[in-house]
Amino acid sequence: HTAQRGRMLYVPRIWPALGGPRVLGTMQILTLVLCSCSGKTAALPWDLPGNSSWEHQGGLVFIHMESSLYSLPCSPIEMEVAHPTYRWVQDRAASRLFSVTKEGHLLFQHFQAGDSGNYSCTISYMKHRVPVSQTFQYSIFAYHVLGGLDTVLLFHSKLCEDEPTKRFLRDLQDKLRQLEIKQHCKLHLTATSCFPSLNSPSDDFVVQVQLEVSLFGPHWDEHCNSQDVETVTDCYRRTVRHNLGQVQLALTRFFKEHKSFHVTGPDIPSSNFTNEFVGFLKTKQCRGGYGQTKQLQRCLDCCIVCPPGTSSPPKTSRCSPCPVGTYSPIYGVAFCTPCKDGMITRVPGASSMTDCVKKERTKQAVSIVHRIPVLILIMLPALLALNFLFILSSCYWFYREYRVSSPRAAKTTGRTTRLEMVTSFFRMPRQGPQAGPDAGPTSDTSDVDASASQGGNEEPTDGAPSPAVTSNLAAVTETAPVLTQ
Questions:
Q1: How far is CA 281 from CA 147, 187, 359, 432, in A?
Q2: SS3 324
Q3: Rounded CA separation 467/119 (Å)
Q4: Residue 455 pLDDT greater than 70, yes or no
Q5: pLDDT for position 158
Q6: Three-class SS of residue 350?
Q7: Strands 320-321, 310-311: parallel, antiparallel or unpaired by DSSP?
Q8: 197 with 204: CB under 8 angstroms?
Q9: Alpha carbons 190 and 209: distance in angstroms, whole number
């Protein structure tokens, strides 16, 4: 292949790999880049270690869309090596055939937005019988200067049916094909509408046609052959302005010569579409899939291709992340692709179909699932404390209930053991004066019942205790000293 040297807008950017045997390679990379940026041809340092392999991060490369022929060298400097081999690889192309010259230059013809991406070139050769390989990496982006033309066409017709209108648009597009080739532009019919005419609404209709003009047709940059970055950028701007005026004059002349279009066919009625109005609107907007950024310092008003995960509808000025539920896997997407089968993406800016997941596994659901262990750790001490307090309170209330009910239960049974009697005896002083009124009637009643069960009918008089009560108290009084000893 023979090709002119490409017009590369190159922004040097280096990420050196420090440490180990690559320190020397890093210093050599810096030397090469400094010499390259100074405009002088640098000789390759031959003091590379044996079996050397080092990598050069080339940085950003901007190529204008629809460039007639772009030649990207494998190395940013001129290299003179014996019998080298070159290998170009793109990160997003599985099996793509590249056009490479014998000098190792990668050729692009009519560069498109989809050609953008990360490229790497590895040059391999033998030096002093030692294999040496060097890798250069580039991030390539398509861009375009601002400038376009929107045309509005109005045609009168007796019919307002779909089939005749479609046939008319196909004939119009075919006749404009020659004008595209001559003016190095692209003409695209976008939107049409049909509505009744104001003069005679019953039998006259108006067909409105919108025509978009792109100034970047085949060989549009054939006059820009300079290799200087600033010079070629200025040439692009001049070419766009010149072609813009030429296309407008050519379209005006075309519709004056083609005033009426006759449409006929076996399945459609014969009809005429007569041109009544042609209007032009010069635009300075990014085309679909492109947006304005400050990455290209030489052309701050230029439009850069949108990377994967973003999109830019036509006539907008910036690339926006794909909304949740959509993704864009390639460069230069005007509209993001929706996920299928009701799936959704977790976050905006998805760049692959694999980012689509089921709705129940959205970001909110995943965040809640991730927060559950943290919530458990936070609530666990509180739950343990509540359980401990519940157990203590239960024991306390159980103790109180047992303390109040056990003396009464022991006396109502009439079978008080010696130990229970002693226990109740020692508890009597702790109850204090408040226990007397409650305990007195209960004791008297139990004793009277006990005496009644034995056949005694005597009732105490003048507040004197009964004989049964007196005997019981005596028994307790005799027993207590024995246990104390």
A1: 11, 14, 45, 108
A2: coil
A3: 117
A4: no
A5: 87
A6: strand
A7: antiparallel
A8: yes
A9: 7
Q: Higher confidence at residue 238 or residue 6?
A: 238
For 163-186, letters b (16+ CB in 10 Å) and e give ebbebbbeebeeebeeebeebbbe
Residue 38's pLDDT band, with cuts at 50, 70 and 90, is very low
- Cβ distance 171 to 91 under 8 Å? no
Taking CA atoms, 181 is separated from 174, 187, 206, 240, in Å, by 12, 10, 30, 16
H/E element, 179: helix 162-183
Q: List C-alpha distances in Å: 188 to 165, 191, 213, 241.
A: 16, 10, 7, 19
Tokens in use for 379? Answer: 């609530």
Q: Does domain 51-143 have CATH number 3.20.20.80?
A: no
Note whether 345 and 326 are within 8 A (CB): yes
* Chain mean position to CA 446: 86
Integer Cα distance of 3 and 147 in angstroms:
28
Residues 446, 414: contact at Cβ < 8 Å?
Answer: yes
More confident: 386 or 2? 386
As a residue count, the chain comes to 485
- 328-351: per-residue pLDDT in tens? 999 999 999 999 988 999 899 999
Cα separation, 288 vs 315, whole angstroms? 7
Nearest residue to 184 (alpha-carbon basis) of 213, 224, 154:
213
Statement: residue 324 has pLDDT above 50? yes
**Overall pTM surpassing 0.85 (yes/no):** no
101-110, 137-146, 356-365: the lowest-pLDDT one? 356-365
387-429 tens-digit pLDDT: 888 888 888 887 777 776 655 544 444 444 444 544 454 454 4
Reading phi first (left if > 0) and then psi (alpha if -120 to 50, else beta), residue 73 is in: beta
Cα dihedral sign for 142, 143, 147, 150? positive
List the strands of the sheet with 99-100, edge to edge. Answer: 70-72, 106-108, 99-100
Long-range contacts (CB closer than 8 Å, 24 or more residues apart) made by 333-339: 333/289, 333/306, 333/308, 334/288, 334/289, 335/288, 335/311, 336/311
**Any idea where the domains of the chain sit in the sequence?**
51-143, 147-283
Average pLDDT, the chain: 74
What is the structure's pLDDT at 420? 52
Alpha carbon 354 to its chain's center:
12
Question: Would you state the pLDDT for residue 11?
Answer: 41
53-64 and 130-144 beta bridge pairing? parallel
Question: Tokens at residue 377, please?
Answer: 């750790």
